[in-house]
Specification:
The structure is a homodimer.
Chain A (H helix, E strand, L loop, with lengths): L13 H11 L4 E5 L2 E4 H17 L7 E5 L4 H13 L2 E4 L6 H11 L3 E4 L6 H4 L2 H4 L5 E4 L8 H6 L15 E7 L7 E6 H15 L6 E4 L6 H12 L3 E4 L5 H10 L4 E3 L2 H10 L23 E2 L5 H4 L3 E4 L4 E5 L9 E2 L4 E5 L11 E7 L11 H8 L4 E9 L5 E6 L4 E3 L2 E3 L1 H9 L4 E11 L3 E10 L7 H11 L8 E4 L13 H8 L9
Parallel strand pairs in A: 1-10, 3-4, 3-5, 5-6, 9-10, 9-11, 23-24
Antiparallel strand pairs in A: 1-2, 7-8, 11-12, 13-14, 14-15, 16-17, 17-18, 18-19, 20-21, 22-23
Helix pairs in contact in A: 1-2, 1-3, 2-3, 8-9, 10-11
Chain lengths: ~525, ~525
C-alpha cells in the first residue's frame, strides 16, 4: 500500500528515522562494529538490501524473524529492515539451555532465525535435527557461505519501496518471564520505541554528538532504550560482541564513547587494566573517581537521570517510564504519553497511600504478548494494561514501586522467577517440596537459594540439585546454594509462607526500584 | 465510545495529559491568571465542568468553537475541554477589522463564539445584528450574566466520561494567511501539539519546575509552543490579558517566571521601570546584562536553543520543527517524528545545494486547512505536505530556509502578506497599480510601504490611502509609508518585479530564519 491520502502524511515509523538521517546526517557515523564503520547513508543502503533480501526469502508484513547471537550492528540492521517491511524482530536470549531455546523458537514461530556459531552455537547444533522438520530458514550470521548474513545482503537491492507501515504495529519482540515463569515475547510498537527514545534521550542527555556503547545484552530493554535514543538523535552506536575490558578501553578512547551500559565489575576491570591512567577515557569518565557513579548506566554529569536515579518500568512498557528526574519522590512521575493508575482487583483506583496494581495506558504499552490472547485479554480487558507490579502513590502524587505481585530474584542483569526454578527442582523424584528465594550477594545483588524438602526415604545432595538445574534451565537460574529442611512453613491457605522462608534461611535483597 | 479493546490502550490524547497531572501532580500550580490560581486537580475539575457545559450546549465530537479575546487561562480550559469532547478550538486574532472578523467566524463556522467586551468588544458589537440570523451561540467571557463563561461552567458537572478521542484528530485551529493572502484555519492534532511540546521542552529546557509567562498573543503558534511545553511537563502557565510592563514585573517576581515570549521593546520598558534594580527578576534574567539575549524568547542559559537560535517552521507544522540546536548549520536539522524533503515542481527531490520547496511528513503536519479541500489536496496529493516555503540543503545535510514562495513582511510578531494589502489598496478607484514591500524598521523589524500608481487624472494623498486600509483590514497591516510612482518595474512575464521595487524604494529586512 502506498501513502496517498492526506491523513497518511502524519504517519512516522521507526524506519522513517533512518530515512531522514540518511538525508539530514548523510555522512555522520551511525554504527561501529569491529572494523566496520557505517555512515547514516551507508546504513540506509545496507538496510534497504537487508529488507529486500528478507522479502526475497518470503518475509512480509506481520511476519517474524529471530536473532540468536551476541551483540552486533546487524541486530539494528535487521530491526530497521523489519521496520521497512512491517515485520517483527526478536533478539532472543542466547544464555538459555538447548530445550529452552527450542521452546523460544517454537513459541515465536519465526520465518528466519539468524544464529551465531562462535561461542553460542551449541543451542543451535543440539537442536539441528529437530529444525529440519519445520518450514523455517536458518541463516548463520557469522559464516561466509550462501546461507549466511552477508549473502542475504548481497541478494538484496538498494531500493526503498517505502511501503506504508503503521507505527502502532509491533516491531520488536522481547522475551520476558511474564511473571508466571513461562517466557512470553512482549511485542513493542514503532511508537513505543520512538517515544521511549525521546524520553531516554532527555533523561540521559543524548544528542547527535553522543556515542553510545552497546555493552549490555541486546535482548534487554534497559540496554536498547539508550541505544535507540542515540540512534533516534542521530548519534553513534558502538557495538561489542561480548564485554571485554581491554577492548572496551580501546573503544571508549577511539569512539569518544559518552554513554554506556556497564555493570560495576566490568568498570572495575577496566580501571584495573588502566591503573596507570594512560588511556583517555574522559568522554565517559571525566573524573576517575567513581564514587558517585551508579552502575550500570554511565551517563554524563549533566544528564537529569544522573542525579535522580529512581525509576519504574518493565519490558512490556518499553523500559523505564516512571522517572524520578521528571519530579516527585520514590520512582518519580510518569513521562509524557502515559497514564498510570493504581488499581485494586476489581479495577477501582485505590486510595492514595495504599498499595495497588500499577496499570498503564498510552502508546508505550506493548501490543500484547505474542500468541497469548487469553493472557493479553485478562491483562487489559477494561482498557488499562495490568503490569503485575505493585505501587503506591506518595503524598506529592508521584509513585513508589512496591514490588512484583510475584516475587522476583535479581542476579546481575537477570530477572529470575522462583516459580520457574521451583518447577525445575520439583521434577526430581526425590523432592517433595521446594521454595526458591534470593539471598543478598555483594557482587550480583542476589543469589538463588533453594530450600528443599526430600521424600522420606530419599537421599540427594546439594551438588545433584544444582547439576540437575544446570542442564534443564539457563545456567544463571540454577541455585547457588541448596538447603534441606524437614518441612516448609505454610500460610493458613496452604501456600508456602515465603516471608517465613526468607526470614529463616537468609533471604533478602529483592529488587526495589524507586 | 468507550475504550474497551486492547489496541485502544495505546491511545493518548491532549486531555490525557491533564488527567495524569491531576493524579501525579494534584497540588502543583497549573495556572495563574490574575487572582485565580489553580492546581492541576482544580484545573481538571474546571475542565470537566466546561466540557459538560459545552456538551449541554450541543458541542460534540468534530464540532468547533472560537475564542475572540485577549490572553486568558480560559483559552487553555476551553482547549482541554475540546480535547475531552473531541471538538476543536480556534483562538482567533482579535486585532482584525469588523469585516475581517465576520469573515473568520463565517469560514470556521463555530457552534459557540466566546467573545470579550473589554478593549476588543467592537468587532462583536458592530456585527451583532448579523449574528442573530445564524444558529450560533455567543458567550461573553468577561461578563457575569447567564450567557457568560462562568455561568457555562456552573451549568456543568465535575464528571469525566472519558470519551474516546483519537489523538490524530484536530484539536486546535490557528488562522494563517496560507500564503495567498486569504486567511485559512490550520487544524492541528493532539499528536502535533504533544510532540511539539516535547521538542520545545527540550530545546527551551522546560520541566515541571518551569513557570511560563504567556505574554505573547495566544493566537500565535510561537507563543503556544512554549506554553504547551510547560503544561505537558507539569509546569506552571502564567497568563496576562495584555502586555503591561509594570504587571509583568510583579508576575516575574511573584511566580518565579523562568520562560517568556517577550518582544524586545517590552523588556526595555521593564528594565526602565525597574532601573533601580529593586525587583527580583533573577528567575528570568539571572543577569541584567541583556546583550546576549535574543528576543522574543526569554529562556534559561542552559537551554540548548539559547545557543543555537536557527530554526524553521510554520503554523501548519505546529511551529518550529527544524532546529539548529539539533545540529547542523543554517536552520538546523528536523526534530524526531518528522521527514523533510526539498522538492521541485514535479515532486522530485532537488540535488543537494539547490533550492526546492520544503515538504514534510509526520504527525506534526496539520490535518489540513478547515473547509479548504481543494487546497489541502493540492498541497498533499503525493503524501508529502508542501509548505509553500523554499529551502536548501547544506553540505552537512542540514537545512537552510531560503524564503517563502510568496514574499512576506514581518512587523513585530505579525506576518503581513503583500498580496492582501495590495488587494485592499487596489480597491480604491483612483489606483491603477500597487506594490507593497517591507522596509527595514529598527523597532519592529519591518514596516509596510506601498508604492502606488494613480490613474491619469486621479488625486490621492498618502493619508487617504492609509485611512482606507485602516478601516478595511487589520490596522497593523496598513502601510506606514506610501510612495507614488508613474509606473512599476515589470518582469518579462508581465508580473511586477518585486526585487526592482525593493531596490528602488528602500525595501529589505525580510524575515529569514536559519
Amino acid at each position: 500500500m502506498r501513502i496517498d491520502q492526506f491523513p497518511a502524511i502524519r504517519q512516522f515509523n521507526f524506519a522513517d528515522t533512518l530515512r531522514e538521517h540518511s538525508r539530514s546526517r548523510p555522512n555522520m557515523i551511525a554504527s561501529v562494529d569491529g572494523p566496520e564503520r557505517l555512515t547514516y547513508r551507508q546504513l540506509d543502503c545496507r538496510v534497504n538490501k537487508v529488507a529486500d533480501g528478507l522479502r526475497k526469502r518470503g518475509v512480509g508484513p506481520g511476519d517474524r524473524i529471530m536473532w540468536v547471537g551476541q551483540n552486533s550492528a546487524r541486530v539494528m540492521e535487521l530491526l530497521l529492515a523489519c521496520a521497512k517491511i512491517g515485520a517483527q524482530l526478536c533478539p532472543a536470549n542466547w544464555r538459555v539451555s538447548p530445550p529452552e531455546f527450542a521452546d523460544l523458537v517454537h513459541r515465536f514461530d519465526p520465518k528466519i532465525v539468524f544464529w551465531q556459531d562462535i561461542e553460542v552455537g551449541d543451542i543451535y547444533h543440539v537442536n539441528k535435527e529437530t529444525w529440519k522438520t519445520h518450514d523455517r530458514q536458518w541463516v548463520q550470521h557469522d559464516g561466509t557461505g550462501a546461507d549466511c548474513y552477508e549473502a542475504l545482503i548481497e541478494s538484496g537491492e538498494d531500493h526503498d519501496p517505502e511501503t506504508f507501515v503503521d507505527a502502532d504495529t509491533p516491531l520488536l519482540a522481547i522475551y520476558t518471564a511474564a511473571f508466571d515463569g513461562a517466557a512470553k515475547a512482549a511485542q513493542l510498537s514503532h511508537n513505543a520505541i520512538l517515544l521511549q527514545a525521546l524520553l531516554s534521550a532527555r533523561g540521559q542527555a543524548i544528542d547527535e554528538t553522543s556515542s553510545y556503547l552497546m555493552s549490555g545484552p541486546m535482548f534487554h530493554v534497559g540496554v536498547l532504550m539508550g541505544g535507540f535514543a542515540a540512534f533516534v538523535a542521530g548519534g553513534r552506536c558502538v557495538y561489542v560482541r561480548r564485554v571485554d575490558a581491554a577492548e572496551l578501553l580501546d573503544l571508549v578512547e577511539r569512539e569518544h564513547v559518552s554513554h554506556a551500559y556497564l555493570p560495576g565489575p566490568v568498570v572495575d576491570q577496566m580501571m584495573k587494566l588502566d591503573a596507570a591512567g594512560k588511556r583517555d577515557l574522559s568522554s565517559l569518565f571525566p573524573s576517575r573517581d567513581l564514587k558517585d557513579w551508579a552502575p550500570p548506566l554511565a551517563i554524563p554529569e549533566h544528564a537529569p537521570m544522573r542525579h535522580h536515579m529512581g525509576q519504574y518500568g518493565q519490558t512490556e512498557l518499553m523500559g523505564s517510564v516512571v522517572l524520578a528526574w521528571l519530579g516527585g519522590s520514590g520512582a518519580g512521575r510518569p513521562g509524557p504519553f502515559l497514564q498510570i493508575r493504581l488499581l485494586d482487583e476489581a479495577g477501582r483506583e485505590v486510595p492514595d497511600g495504599e498499595t495497588g496494581e500499577i496499570a498503564a495506558r498510552g502508546p508505550l504499552v506493548m501490543n500484547g504478548y505474542y500468541g497469548a490472547d487469553a493472557v493479553n485479554q485478562a491483562r487489559s480487558a477494561d482498557g488499562w494494561y495490568r503490569t503485575n507490579d505493585l505501587g503506591r502513590r506518595n503524598p506529592d502524587g508521584s509513585l513508589s514501586f512496591v514490588g512484583p505481585k510475584a516475587t522476583m530474584i535479581k542476579s546481575g542483569l537477570e530477572n529470575i522467577y522462583p516459580a520457574e526454578v521451583e518447577a525445575c527442582i520439583r521434577a526430581l523424584p526425590e523432592v517433595s517440596d521446594v521454595c526458591v528465594i534470593g539471598v543478598p550477594d555483594e557482587r550480583w545483588a542476589q543469589s538463588v537459594k533453594a530450600v528443599v524438602v526430600l521424600n522420606d526415604t530419599a537421599a540427594l545432595d546439594e551438588h545433584a540439585v544444582i547439576e540437575h538445574c544446570r542442564h534443564a534451565i539457563a545456567s544463571y537460574k540454577k541455585p547457588k546454594i541448596v538447603a534441606f529442611a524437614p518441612a516448609l512453613p505454610r500460610l493458613p491457605n496452604g501456600f508456602v509462607d515465603r516471608a517465613a522462608v526468607d526470614a529463616g534461611w537468609g533471604g533478602g535483597g529483592y529488587p526495589k526500584v524507586g
